[in-house]
Amino acid sequence: MDHFPVFMAVAGRRIVLSGGGDAALAKLRLILKTTAKVTVFAPQAAPELHAWAAAGRLTLVLRVMAAGDAQDAVLFYAANEDDAEDARVAALAHADGAKVNIVDNLGDSEFITPAIVDRDPVVVAIGTEGAAPVLARKIKADLEAQLPASLGLLARVGKTFRHAVNVLPMGVKRRDFWSAFYFREGPKAVSKGQDQIVPTLESLLDDHIMGQTKAGHVDLVGAGPGDPDLLTLKARKALDKADVVIHDRLVTGDILELARREAIIIDAGKEGFGKSMKQEDIDALIVDHARGGAHVVRLKAGDPTVFGRLDEEIDALVAADIPYTIVPGITAASAAVAGISQSLTKRGRNSAIRFITGHDTKGYADHDWKVLGQPGQVAAIYMGKRAARFIQGRLLMHGADPATPVTIIENVSRTNQRIIATTLAELEPTMSNANLTGPAITFYGLAPRDALAIDLQEQEAI
Ligand code: SAH
What is the mean pLDDT of the chain? Predict the structure, then answer.
């Protein structure tokens, strides 16, 4: 960001502009929205300028600008549409201590004016640092369509009502009240007449005070491995209704996008080995929001019942007497095996599959290595990146065949999914050399179908 957006206090302060043509008019249409004292220097001025001067909206001085004319001005615009004259007046204004903008000359300007969506006191400024005016216009048009024209009026009336809303507890309850006012009841009231706004606020507040005793609810939802198309319909419906979404680190932005627009999104990410939010704190967060009456969606990667510490959260909800629902999701193993065109189980190959974890809260997790080391075993290893050497060592020690196929699948179901086929003997260093940055699942005893096909072709060729 080469330009930092700020909102400058201009009430009663001077803004000076040099120029009397189209460029000057375009800038003045924006500047005149403010409560600044505006002075324009122009030897010749367009009729609009004369009209604005006559209406007392600005001071028009019908001559070229001279030294000292921009004294005490906070902002200065050079809008003469003449490079030499603009450079001259910019230097004068600069000497007077004003911040200078030269219209259509980004390089020599000390500030730029954004595109503005005006719902005073709500003002949205859009800047593209001069790179894409088309984009700014499009965003402006979208926002104009999205923000009710009455928003400014509602905000002004709403401001006088703030103290009354203090009877609602801070947080979700108050935010719910205001979002119902700004986006639902308020615009309806305006369409019936401005005098309807205050009565609407009053009855809406009554409703919200009554509704305070509403019990919260928690949906413990599986978000799947990352592709939004792998969400269940039930998960989508839960996201549509959510007041609060508390999600894991592995839940992707694409999925969070689907949450209700007014929902509060909280990242309760736990890094594998790094800094993390403690499980007790997450439990408390879920309970607190639900107690406040919110519909909480606890969004977990994959399926919440697989290595998801779900039971601790359920225990906390039961202890707090909060109702909950579990919404299953597609676990990483299911999506990963689809990615290598295999089945989790296959008649004649493996009649069982184990979901094992590489590490648990105490460190590397121990398993029945002796059984796993026997031929025909298949395991989906979650959280197995760092434990790869440990697992490899244990399995080989217990007699597993070093040639057993192993497949590592990173970023399952996402656009950057990566499949690495190897063998138990090569699991390390393959894992380390792969420099994985995303989540990865390891299949022990399964090779990608394609790799098998290639092997067969090679065998046939020999
Ligand atoms: N509940 C989740 C698992 C949570 S444990 C589920 O059912 O999938 C976290 C581990 O899941 C990660 O270390 C990784 O092994 C695996 N995992 C989750 N999402 C993944 C993805 N998109 N790609 C690969 N592995 C994933």
Answer: 90
